[in-house]
Amino acid sequence: MLSAATQKKRFAMEIRYAVGRNEFERMTTKELRDAFLISSLFQPGKMTLTYWETDRAVVGSAVPLGSALVLEAGKELASEYFCERREIGVLNIGAKGKVTVDGVEHRLDSRECLYIGRGSKDVAFASDDPSDPAKFYFISYPAHTAYPTTVVSRASVNEIHLGSVEDANKRTIRQCIHEKGVKSCQLVMGFTQLEPGSVWNTMPAHTHARRSEVYLYFGIPDGSAVFHLMGPSDETRNIVVHNGDVVLSPIWSIHAGCGTRAYTFSWAMGGENQRFDDMDVVAVSDLR
Fold first, then answer.
1. For residues 93 and 203, what is the distance between their CA atoms, to the nearest angstrom?
2. Residue 66, helix vs strand vs coil
3. Complete edge-to-edge strand list for the sheet that includes strand 254-259
4. Superfamily of domain covering 9-286
5. How far is CA 277 from CA 44, 181, 204, 280, in A?
6. Selection from 147, 29, 153, 125 nearest residue 68 by Cα
7. How far is it, in rounded angstroms, from Cα 64 to Cα 49?
8. From 125, 210, 256, 273, which residue has the greatest number of CB atoms within 10 Å?
C-alpha cells in the first residue's frame, strides 16, 4: 500500500470547472488553453488525474515504470475507492502492459482498450518493459449500474471507413466501447486514425447537446501540430495541440480539427445517450 504522502504527490487531482458559451466569447488564447487543454499527461512513472465539472468526467493517464501505479479515490470523489460509483475506459497508446482489476490481469497491446465496470475495487497499471513502457489513457464517468470488465482487442473493435482523399479526411473509426458492443452506463469510447495525406478529422463540424466529449490527440509526428476548432458555430476559436494533448469539448461547442500531418485521436463521450450518429451538423457555409 502506498503511503499517504506518496499518494498525494503521485495522484493529486486537478479540477477544471465548466465554462459557458457567453464567457467563452471573451476569453484570451491563454484562458482558452487553461480551461480546455490538458497537456500534462503521460509523465514517466506517474499517474495524472483531471476532474472536469462537465458531466463529472475524470481524465487521466498512467505510465508505469518499475512498479505498478495504483488508482486511488481522492477526496474529490468522496468515495471509498475510485470505481465505487464510476466506470472507466482505458486505451493503451504505448507498449505492452497490463491492468489488474480486483486481482485479474487484463493484458493490453498498443491501441487496445479495456472497460472497467462500476464496483471494481482495486485497479493497478503496469508495463511489461519499464524501458519501453505502456502509456495508459483513461476516462471515467459516473455509473448507475455495473457491467462486466471487458478487454477490447484489436480484432474485436468495430471499424467504420469514412471520408475521401478529395476532402483530405479519409479515415478509419474504431469503436471500442459503444451501444452495440461492450456495454457501459454512459461511456462511449474509441479512436480514429487518418490516412497519410488526410488531415481533417471531421468536416462539416457538429455538436451534440446530449453529451460532452473529450479528445486525446496522439500519433502526431515531431514538429507537427493539430489545430482543434471549437466554440459556437458563429464564434469559433482554435487551440493548437501537440502529441499527447487532450481537449475538453463542452456540449455547446463544435469539435473539428486539421493537422499539419496525419494523426490519430481518441474520442470519449458521456451524457444522455450512446448513439454515435447523434450529431447536430453545422454547414461549412454557416461557420464563422
1. 25
2. coil
3. 237-241, 226-231, 254-259
4. Jelly Rolls (2.60.120.10)
5. 36, 15, 14, 9
6. 125
7. 14
8. 125
Strand partners, 70: 124
Radius of gyration for the chain, computed over Cα atoms and rounded to the nearest angstrom: 18
Residue 3 pLDDT > 70, yes or no? no
What is the pLDDT, as a whole number, of residue 208?
87
Pairing relationship of beta strands 13-16 and 47-52 according to DSSP bridges: parallel
Q: What residues does each domain of the chain span? A: 9-286
Contact between 39 and 218 (Cβ < 8 Å):
no
How many H helices and E strands in the chain? 3, 23
pTM exceeds 0.70 for this model: yes
Tell me which H or E stretch contains 99: strand 97-101
pLDDT given for residue 85 in this prediction: 97
Residue 131 CB contacts under 8 Å (≥ 6 apart), including other chains: none
As a whole number of angstroms, the distance between CA 43 and CA 64 comes to: 9
Q: What is the share, in percent, of the chain residues with pLDDT greater than 70? A: 96
